[in-house]
């Protein structure tokens, strides 16, 4: 076997970009991927359409112990670099909500095909159904990677190893904590991990009220003491989901309240006042059904005097309606866990890695990129931008 420049563990977004960029530089790598095909998470992202970057991605859209850590990678591989790269290989973007960029074909498989075709052209090998069992480092600094394929234990050696094996979501797609275990094995600190971009659950006396609204979607502002997001929320049989909930879940801690402004771009009391000036004969429920779904307007009858006409609402009732609509309080019981999470929060501590190269400061030749690093993006293409950038940065060093 010819000598390899690196072994990349994980054939997701970061690993594939790293292999291709290394190939452009004349480096030879193997990707070890435990699933039966590469890019499994790419294929399901964005409902199978893959929002492969975000036009507005910057360090402010990421959660990390060191909020400045990703700046270097993003200066080396920009959003425009991502756009140009994919355009070179026939994938053009169309902007959807809030800067999200999707392929015009709306097919995530087209994104994966760019990388698999390039790996073939560049002589980079993708070995699927290969579960990495261990990594050893010899006294001369070279690494030996032990992996199992079809029941056989095999080895491969290289001077560099890239951990691009993702995080703990979604187990059926091959999610694993191998990168975190490897970091600990070599004495690197790992920050606390948790599901992120994940639906939140409601239990107790209010659970039935949420469940009856399953399928109803409402545009609102969701906030806690640290951050707020304006997007849709979705009521479910077990609680709340939708883009705004997924976004704030990364900033939510168990026991905390969330505040929902159910009408962020208007004032409900002002709308009622305007109607009252026209006579106010309309029922509150009728007004609310013109703003929300009929089912949601009816459900608000548990809390508001929806069967009264607007003209007869008292000052106290107007106060109640205003407070309820603009300060709807929710105390989630928990989240739906890693199998419903988009990404993992936390990971290999940024203090352990060079921000310029993503190489371990303690173990030369050992690199960490993508989701396993303590850099967690918002919903909407941000985590892909981090994956592409970190893959590119690592490739320059191999």
The gist of it:
This protein has 398 residues and is α+β, with helices and mostly antiparallel strands. 31% of the residues lie in helices and 23% in strands.
Percentage of residues in strands: 15-25%
Oligomeric state of the chains present here: single chain
Q: Architecture of the largest domain, according to CATH?
A: 3-Layer(bba) Sandwich
- The helix-and-strand class reads alpha+beta
| Helix content, binned percent | 25-40%
Biggest sheet, spatial arrangement of strands? 18-17-14-15-16-13-19
Biggest sheet character? 7 strands, antiparallel
Whole-number average pLDDT?
Answer: 94
By DSSP, the count of extended strands is 22
- N-to-C span: 19 Å
């Amino acid at each position: 076997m010819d000598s390899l420049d690196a072994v990349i563990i994980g054939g997701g977004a970061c690993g594939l970009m790293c292999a291709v960029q290394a190939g452009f530089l004349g480096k030879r790598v193997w990707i070890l991927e435990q699933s039966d095909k590469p890019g499994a998470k790419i294929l399901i992202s964005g409902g199978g359409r893959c929002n492969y970057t975000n036009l507005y991605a910057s360090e402010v859209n990421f959660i990390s112990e060191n909020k400045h850590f990703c700046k270097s990678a993003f200066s080396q591989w920009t959003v425009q670099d991502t756009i140009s790269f994919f355009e070179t290989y026939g994938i053009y973007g169309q902007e959807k909500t809030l800067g999200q960029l999707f392929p015009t074909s709306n097919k995530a498989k087209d994104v994966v095909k760019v990388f698999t075709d390039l790996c073939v052209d560049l002589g980079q090998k993708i070995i699927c159904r290969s579960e990495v069992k261990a990594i050893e480092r010899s006294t001369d600094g070279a690494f030996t990677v032990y992996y199992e394929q079809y029941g056989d234990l095999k080895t491969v050696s290289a001077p560099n190893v890239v951990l691009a094996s993702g995080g703990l979501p979604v187990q059926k797609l091959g999610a694993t904590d191998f990168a975190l275990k490897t970091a600990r094995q070599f004495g690197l600190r790992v920050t606390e991990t948790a599901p992120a971009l994940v639906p939140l659950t409601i239990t107790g006396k209010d659970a039935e009220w949420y469940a009856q609204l399953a399928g109803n979607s409402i545009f609102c502002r969701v906030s806690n003491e640290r951050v707020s997001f304006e997007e849709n929320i979705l009521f479910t049989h077990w609680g709340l989901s939708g883009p705004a909930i997924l976004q704030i879940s990364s900033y939510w801690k168990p026991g905390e309240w969330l505040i929902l402004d159910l009408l962020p771009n208007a004032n409900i009391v002002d709308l009622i006042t305007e109607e009252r000036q026209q006579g106010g004969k309309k029922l509150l429920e009728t007004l609310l059904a013109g703003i929300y779904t009929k089912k949601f307007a009816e459900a608000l009858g548990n809390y508001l005097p929806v069967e009264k006409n607007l003209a007869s609402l008292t000052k106290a009732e107007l106060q109640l309606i205003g407070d309820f609509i603009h300060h709807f309080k929710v105390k989630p019981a928990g989240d739906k866990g890693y199998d419903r999470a988009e990404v993992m929060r936390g990971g290999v501590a940024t203090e352990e890695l060079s921000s310029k190269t993503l190489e371990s400061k303690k173990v030369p030749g050992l690199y960490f990129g993508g989701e396993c690093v303590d850099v967690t993006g918002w919903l909407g293409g941000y985590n892909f931008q981090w994956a592409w950038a970190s893959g590119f940065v690592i490739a320059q060093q191999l």
